[in-house]
Design brief:
The chain is α+β, with helices and mostly antiparallel strands and 356 residues long. It has 6 helices and 16 strands. Helix 1 packs across helix 2 (136-149) and helix 4 (261-278) packs across helix 5.
Length: 356
């Protein structure tokens, strides 16, 4: 695997040319939530979605069904705030409308309806204020940040945007990203928001589940004394907080390949395998696990071996989601302890583990 041509190899979803990412955080001392926007290039992208969690919170995902009329979209919103936070998409819609970007529905170029699919994670009350959640202003701030970031910009990871208040199995979660260039020259990237009921950590060895599948061989393991101390600290943290009623892991897998909407939906579905490798268990009734797939349509798939040419993108998408989840957990800042709960970080418990 190689780094994307014309970039400095940021190993992020923005290595897919034309895609930009912006984060915004809900202001206030009791707030621990935010919104992340993946903004497509002018003209939009082919998009699809696959929802497998039992408690999803989404908006405009039906529009992405290949049987339906919308052919391209301009942005995807990932947000905190549970269903309340889906209001962030309204701010992104307004920003797009001002630029005449959306589905044309009238004779005037301004007659557009921007279709902005969105999905949310549950983080209500994590900062202590249950009412502090993203709204249209948060969404607008995130899309403005994406637009201002420029092409192939570095993507901030950890407790930012939709991952500001994220937790995973009692640890701090957050945003992660990864990318690769396939032998065909096609670029594939992924961005995740990790906020799962399940755990990212193998309790027996203290390693991140996803690190078993990372490039560079098997992971290193924390010493037994470190694992024992981590287990005690995590048990104390879990005992001090009520179980969260809802969680969710979100992902966006993107490529510069030319894909049909049906092919994009296959990419979204297969990418869930990447979540399953890195988090256990997944797709529970109190998760809303959702994966979006985006295709900018710059590079044709190889002519041979026909329909099977999609396989390398399917495999890469799942691998990159796993790698992005590992990075999200490792990028989480120091532990969070406050009125919303006690959530140590992986590095706080286990120290530094080599990244994927």
């Amino acid at each position: 695997m190689t780094q994307p041509e014309g970039t400095d190899g940021r190993d992020s979803i923005t290595d897919v040319g034309g895609l930009r990412v912006g984060h915004a955080r809900v202001p206030g001392g009791g707030a621990l939530s935010g919104t992340t926007v993946v903004l497509g290039p002018e003209g939009g992208v082919v998009a699809a979605v696959d929802v497998r969690g039992g408690g999803p919170g989404t908006r405009e995902t039906d529009a992405l069904d290949p049987r339906n009329v919308v052919q391209r979209i301009d942005a995807v919103v990932l947000t905190g705030g549970s269903a309340y936070g889906l209001d962030a998409a309204a701010g992104v819609m307004a920003w797009l409308e001002e630029r005449h970007r959306g589905v044309r529905v009238g004779p005037d170029p301004s007659h557009v309806v921007p279709v902005v699919p969105a999905a949310c994670v549950f983080d209500l009350g994590r900062g202590g204020d249950f009412s502090a959640r993203p709204d249209a202003a948060t969404g607008r701030a995130a899309v403005e940040a994406a637009d201002a970031s420029g092409d192939h910009a570095r993507v901030e990871t950890g407790a930012v945007g939709a991952g500001t208040g994220a937790v995973v199995g009692g640890l701090r979660g957050g945003v992660g990203t990864a990318s690769t260039v396939l032998d065909s020259g096609i670029t594939v990237g992924a961005l995740v928001v990790v906020n799962a009921v399940g755990s990212a950590v193998d309790p027996a060895m203290g390693a991140l589940y996803g690190s078993y599948f990372a490039d560079g061989g098997p992971p290193s393991f924390p010493a037994p004394a470190v694992r024992e101390a981590a287990a005690r600290r995590l048990a104390e943290a879990r005992a001090s907080a009520a179980p969260p009623p809802l969680n969710t892991t979100l992902a966006v897998v993107a490529t510069d390949a030319v894909l049909t909407r049906a092919q994009a939906q296959k990419v979204a579905g297969t990418a869930h395998d990447g979540i399953a490798r890195a988090l256990r268990p997944v797709h529970l009734m109190n998760d809303g696990d959702t994966v979006f797939a985006l295709a900018t349509g710059v590079r044709e798939l190889p002519e041979a071996p026909g329909p099977l040419a999609l396989n390398e993108i399917l495999a890469a998408g799942a691998d990159l989601v796993t790698r992005a989840i590992v990075r999200a957990v490792l990028a989480a800042p120091g532990g969070l302890r406050g009125p919303g709960g006690d959530f140590p970080s992986y590095r706080e418990l286990y120290g530094s583990e080599p990244g994927p």
